[in-house]
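Structure request: LysR family transcriptional regulator, Pseudomonas fakonensis.
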Amino acid sequence: MLYDITSLDLFITVAQERNLTRAGRIKHMAVSAISKRISELELQIGSPLLLRNARGVELTPAGQSLLFYARQLKQTMAQLDSELSGYASGVKGHIRIHAITSALSQFLPQDVASFAALYPQIKFDIEERVGSAVVRAVADGRADLGIIATQTASEGLESLVYRHDELTVVVPGGHELTTRKSVGFKELLEHELVGPHLESSVHALLTSEAAKLGMTLKLRIRISSFDCMCRMVSNGLGIAVLPRSVVSQYQRSHKLKAVTLDEPWAQRTLSLVLRKYDAATPTLKTFIDHLRLTG
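Returned structure:
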């Protein structure tokens, strides 16, 4: 079934305003012309889209469905215009990424840099988010690609393995655990912790594993930044669980010690999530293939 883009755009405005007159003012069109367009859509679909009343209009179930897909189509067309106009000015694509702190602190900067060296005219928008927010952004179309830990539910998105990391225990100099090569999680729970953000993948994992032991986290401080967590630990405000490569960046400057967390779940997998690889733009596919190759 072929749809007229102008009619769909008019329908979106009518649906948003819930009033044909207001929609006419916005679109600089006569109400009769808009009404004719809506009637043509209804005839094409074979079902009423609007319920007219004294105050304006309401959407029928068919109208709600059309609004959803019309908005998606409008967003896709806008992305198409943006990307194709970019080619005219020498820019060869645009990728929006939302990622958890673990990915941004360890792997993504180097991977983006190596990709940019191969494709210098591709632009990136990269935002740091907790895992659940990353999934929502990709599902809603606000991000083209997300990076999460596998402990975060991907909610029906396509998931591809990205990298592996290791969670380790970070303690300040002079702490009783500094003499240890490894420590079990149960023993770790006896100590006060500097914890990550409430919605972070690390927090969710630690909380879940503590519950399996019938215990809870002794959280003294909760903070979102890995850098700030290391600073808090360095000042004796607790110990923390962080990716090993993150801790290594601060060990010398903050006088910290990394102690192996002796648990199988301390070995984590980070995943790429997107709506559908087969439906991704060529630019996004090329970037994903690069990430998987370098990983």
